[in-house]
Amino acid sequence: MADKIKIAYLYEDLMNTYGDSGDVKILRYLLNQQGYQVDVDNVSLGDHFNADDYDFIFFGGGQDYEQTVVAKDLLRHAQTLGRYIENGKPMLAICGGYQLLGDYYKTSEGSVIKGLGILPLHTVFKPDSRMIGDTKYETEFGTVTAFENHSGRTYFDDKQKLKPLGKMIEGYGNNPEDGVEGMRYKNTIGSYSHGPILKNQNIAKAIANMIVKNHKARMGQPA
Ligand code: GLN
Fold it and tell me: ipTM of the assembly?
């Protein structure tokens, strides 16, 4: 029987506006090529969820309304997700999902949506100046090209702990000031990149390798 990799897709039914499900399809393809079967569970409103049952967690982008609904339900999982991330297990969070890993996002009218508070970052929402367009940036995995579409501007609150995923060559990334895109903490990657981001094979292969490594550890198999 083929070995099964388990992926949790957080709120796939709600956070799916920007085509980020392509990231999971690409990972499935790469893992299938290595001989693994891949099961993807949609973890949604009210569902039971234990992060440690999974080899990889994916959290895509979404529109503001859905993001507000998801944010409330998500807080139930703060502990299990916090432990998963702290233990160095792999996760990819895009745009709205990335924003929700942080402390909060605040609209320009002043209302605050509480995030998971796992990573020291926050987002300020400016609907009048949306950041839309092609992006290109340099990462430890090589150059990445993608597309961004967001009003939220993300700022790190602890620059020792969080490292940017990349340095901008084209586009905005986290915000118009810092010249960086996304976030890396242990094996968790946050990014504003749609496209989907994993059409960039360098980063897709690196994440597939992290998943296999975590799977082997979870199954007690030799590395
Ligand atoms: N609604 C959020 C923003 O505009 C996230 C958008 C997204 O996920 N693409 O900042």
Answer: 0.91
Contact 27, 39 (CB under 8 A): no
Question: Does residue 223 lie within any of the structural domains?
Answer: no
- Please state, in angstroms and as integers, the Cα–Cα distance from residue 199 to each residue in 8, 18, 121, 144, 185, following that order: 20, 14, 26, 9, 22
197 within ligand 1 shell (Cβ under 6 A)? no
How many domains does the chain fold into?
1
Atom of ligand 1 nearest to the CA of 94: 8
Does 44 contact ligand 1 (Cβ within 6 A)? no
Q: What is the pLDDT of residues 91-132, one digit of tens each?
A: 999 999 999 999 999 977 778 999 999 999 999 998 788 999
Catalytic-labelled residue, pool 122, 150, 194, 215: 194
Query: Strands 112-114 and 104-107, how do they pair?
Result: antiparallel
Total count of residues recorded for the chain: 223
Q: What CATH number should be reported for the domain holding residue 182?
A: 3.40.50.880
